[in-house]
Amino acid sequence: MDFSLPPELEEKRKVVRAFALREFADEKKRYYDEHEKFPFEIRKKAMEEGILNYGNYWDLLITIEELFRVDPGLGFSIFAPFFGNENILLLGNDEQKKKYLEPVLRGERIMGFAVTEPVAGSDVAGIASKLDKQPDGSYILNGSKMFITNGTIADQLVVVARSGPVPSEQKRHHNMSMVIVETKWPGVSTNKLYGKMGMRASDTAEVIFDNVKVPKENLLGEEGKGFYYAMNFFNISRIYVAAMAIGIAQGALDIIVEKAKKDKAFSSMEGTQFTIAEIATRIEAARLITYKAASFLFQFNPDPVLTSMAKYYAAETGTYATEKALLATGMDGALTSLERMFRDAKINEIWEGSSEIEELTIYRMLMKKLESD
């Protein structure tokens, strides 16, 4: 069994790291974090240099790691404008792909995925936004979404809303549908959220839908299957969240190792040596399980248990690594980008399914599998 990556991917890793080290200068990291602005010009350079390659998912995974290794906030802002495109790729017809997917992949449009609501976070089955079907086949969308990435800068959103009544408490996940909504349409409004703990360079917003007319042509896939489509998407996005967390952990390790190289007294302390060993070991474990889960996903045969394990363990590793590195480096670390990494790391334990949700998924699916053996 070969655990090494192809030479072209290792070369791409070097290219992405060089780009991030060049473009994510310290003053830019501070500026976009403090002012909570989206770095449009950095995204433009990334597109011009072909940093993101959606034609090769292993390439994309490696790219995410290396971007987040240097700065999670800026790294996420390069990757985030494509968020949710997989829904159109997998479910869209030729016309939808031409109109909505191709411009996003060319960097001409920004998109987002609107699932979370004030009353429905990890519990996607609790979605209350409604899609009322009209006689002509179109829909009227009403409701609100919360914590939506790219909310105020997106040109289009893939939205999951309830397109029929709730059959029963046990079948709350039924009768949901997925549609493409253009943010310029009448009735769509947004409120940017400020003061986030981390990922401040990314755009996060509340999105409100007030009698928004959605053409029937903008239905993705089949009506009523929105919940299942969202779950399939999370099997994809959770792998990328795991890669984000691994990158953050690696970045924290880089900082403490660099200090150890320069400070002999620091490196001679057993506490320092233990911390470096512990972080490095957890990164290796998180990377191996993530790559294993990715190997199934990229062959169109995702293993939900492995995917949840990867997302859960990598996210915990990102937080663990940044906290341990901060404790070890003290004020020296607190005055570096390590402080931002610590704040940025925490969200990986929350979005795309909290750590607790991942643990429940692992338990339930493992028990189901064991009972059937």
In total, the number of strands is 8
Rg over CA atoms = 21 Å
State the fourth-level CATH superfamily of the largest domain.
Answer: Butyryl-CoA Dehydrogenase, subunit A, domain 3
Helix content: 40-55%
Tally of individual helices? 13
Which percent band covers the strand fraction? 5-15%
**CATH first level of the largest domain: which class?**
Mainly Alpha
Task: Please mark out the parts with pLDDT under 50 across 5 or more consecutive residues, or reply none.
Answer: none
**CATH fold-level label of the largest domain:** Butyryl-CoA Dehydrogenase, subunit A, domain 3
Along the chain, the helix and strand elements come as: HHHHHHHEEEEEEEEHHHHHH
- Amino- and carboxy-terminal Cα gap: 26 Å
Oligomer: single chain
Count of discrete domains: 3
> What is the general shape?
globular
CATH architecture of the largest domain: Up-down Bundle
Mean pLDDT over all positions: 94
Strand order of the largest sheet: 1-4-5-8
The major beta sheet can be summarized as: 4 strands, mixed
The secondary-structure class comes to alpha+beta
